[in-house]
Target: Cytochrome P450
Amino acid sequence: MATVATETESNRPVDPLDVSRPELYRDDVWQEPFRKLRAESPIHYTPDSDYGAYWSVTTYKPIVEVESLPDIYSSEVGGITLADFIEGSDVKMPMFIARDRPVHTAQRRTVSPAFTPSEMTRMSGDIRQRTAEILDSLPVGKEFDWVDKVSIELTTQMLAILFDFPWEDRRKLTFWSDWAGDIELVKSEELRQKRLEHMFECGAYFQNLWNQKIDKEPTPDLISMMIHSDAMSHMDQYEFIGNLILLIVGGNDTTRNSMSAYAWGLNQFPEERAKLEQNPELIQNAVQEIIRWQTPLAHMRRTATQDTELHGQKIREGDKLAMWYISANRDESVFGPDADAIKVDRENARRHLAFGWGIHRCVGARLAELQITILLEEMAKRRLRVNVTGDPTRVAACFVHGYRSLPVELSKY
Model:
């Protein structure tokens, strides 16, 4: 698994409002600096960080505004994370989430049929069966790692089905996702190159799968959908790898880390866990609340294409903006003074921004919601409770907001 040192090697003094610092997420202490930013400087300029200068957009309304103006705030000019592309160190691997219109629209339209309501209905039986099999294999009263045995396994199985990927090699998808999504790797030239090697390994593996499907009848998997589309059938090697990585990371990290947040988060709020156990009809709403509370991708980045103004702040052409979904989902003006808590019956939980907003909203959101919902339903059916037995190991990074491991024991209620 990709890991790097998390302390800055520069002599730069620590800026308490530089919320890109990885230790904030490793140690789960990001809440206070974001609370301060929302209250005092919701659109805040950080002149110096490990990722250079950037604006932090930390409250709900301005993030929606930025997302609603994709021609002014580009995904393509600088990419979707705070990490910048470096000539000579990186190879550009375009992906449709990091493209502007019209390319984004055409490529997104290619893969979106895999995530329609009818496809969710078609896949739900299989998802439920696989979830049941995993839960029935878990020990009750014996410690195990929830992230490995449940979160990773369920999401990796789903990815293997979406890609028609060889079942015995499915853990390669997790491995590639961890390397691709680790923003901290950009701070080391050696790790940049190592990641590039793994991305080419991924591309070569998928190229072989692609070649096996050329001139074959269409099938309901993502590779076949790409082959049989005008927008994606002629991608070059780098765009092919880029879009694969997008679908792997997007399909893996959102669902995987929300499933882990279900175990960790409800353990932190036992009264809410009891409420959910006594009222299983709250499961669908609780899923939205868990996704809001966790926010599996902490930020997305945009780059200004022109001089503009955002809620009173003058933004210059070329400025980098981080839309901190993780903060907007705790915005007290939207979710109330208890926004830091899990409330399984929160009335507006579905208003969360964890999937983004506008044209770049997560194309697989329905599938993520379905997988997490079925997990909670099958846990309730078995009257199983997750009891955390130790501290989680968290991802030390400001992009993927998640868990490496979480020791738990199951009990019956």
